[in-house]
Structures
1.
Amino acid sequence: MTNEAAIGIFDSGVGGLTVARAVLNVLPREEIRYVGDTAHTPYGEKDLETVRGYSLSIMDSLVESGVKMLVIACNTASCAVLDQARTRYQEEQGIPVVEVVQPAVEHAVTRSRNIGITIILQSMSQLESKYDKKAQTIIDCCDSTLFLGGKSNSTNKEIAEMIGKQTIHQMTYNESTGQSSSASKNLQIQGRDLIDAAEIGKMSRLKAILLIAGTNPLMDDKYDPHAHKRYRYIVDKRNWKRLHKNSFDFERYLKNGCEPYTPDEDMGAEFTAWKWAAWKKSRKGLLGILLNR
């Protein structure tokens, strides 16, 4: 393997060509060797072991061809094989392995195409365990942060630092009387946290904190999902307003298109109407009389 060797990029299909184009935009003198596994696409509907086998087979062939770097341009493959690939090629053979969600590729691909990335975490430590020192870079690149509450001390401290401090001006006056009277005035400027980590930990779970770059932090009530006009489309046994009994079957959709469920599979509106009627009949007293009119 030499510096003149190609960069190997693979995807489950042709979508990874956007990554290849982004790499060429940044490194126009580099040679790209691209493999799209169209014979087995899409990877998303296959189990991880199968995806891992396909991915390692392709990367083995790229390494045998003499590439100097491997870029996994498929999110499913990244989840299935990234750790094993880094051990197999990067640690044992000295060939770097890069995934599409790494910050370097993130900037090259998403910013040039105005694509937004939303990162959902339970704790900041999850990001740190995955990306180590690069975790802070990812956080710094997020213009908006929505904190829904939690008990992680590290996360609460991070949010408190992001909210910042309040400037306090304290003016003190001193006056002494007597044979030689005197007076003095002193102005002190101090900083105090708008909210500290302990207060964030005690924050009501009905509250949320929104941080948007260039604006003041905002604490407000969380939106009640039950009040949303599309809540009835959520398939949940606890949701008695739901329109459908069965959840959307993606595998069925990919195979048969928009073929509807049969009445036996999904009773739809009739199912909801029946539950509503049963609920009304179960009520007693004045409320039951009014509901049953």
2.
Amino acid sequence: MKPVNLSASRTWSVHSRLAFEEDLDALLRSVGLRPTRQRMALGWLLFGKGNRHTTAEVLHLEAIEVGLRVSLATVYTTLNQFMDAGILRQLAFNGKLFFDTNTSTHYHFFIEGENVLIDIANDDLALGKIPTPPEGYEITRI
């Protein structure tokens, strides 16, 4: 089996990497998932960058870039297991599925043409008030 270079996805000190691995292991176990090699590797790529929005295809490419030999089907299976366990949300925008590591209640801007999601700060959202779009963008529909 080929070694996986997960350090390429983020700069980590040895201590912080070990702490993250322990946290990820504990997170998976706490939701009833066995921390298999593939779940740990994909979880590292997914959760190791903080709150983010990604697609299965992008996560699959990231996995390949760090030397993880995993099929796109396995990526989807793992993402679905994470969703079923409640540690990941699935969002659909313009017919495209995104996965959100922030499972709290929150809303998003969808940047058309770029297929990018940006969280809307909860304090920037009020009934009767349209949230301020990110700099350089305008709201085309709600």
3.
Amino acid sequence: MEASSRTPAAMTRISLLIASSLALAACAGTPPVPGGTLEGGEWLVERVEDRSLVDRSFIAMRFGADGRVLGRAACNGWSAGYKVDGDRIAFTAGAATLKACAAALGEQEGRFHRLLSQVSRYRFADDGALLLEAADGRAIRARRG
């Protein structure tokens, strides 16, 4: 069919078909949000509640396929169990070493563990950060290491 013999309705259908195809192709090529899974690498905590971490300190965690999360911090190592159901997550009581450390670091680790025990939901921010959220809105923010 020559272009001059196409009707406006046919041109509209062709335009819609092309637009739909382009939209589908764009969606198929869009990579997932970075960090879209808990497992598969280390998460480095950036914030606990609304506080940044103490200078030159760290809290790291690694989620395993076996339902265990292993962590390390400036002073102590720790582990706990976790269970995911959709966007819901629950952490079970775990274990931690009890090394002596500076008061600010001990307080930071305590705040982290208290909040972790209250986390009930997780999600990924648009920038790929992991947000572990308690029901009252307090959160732990972490990023892939």
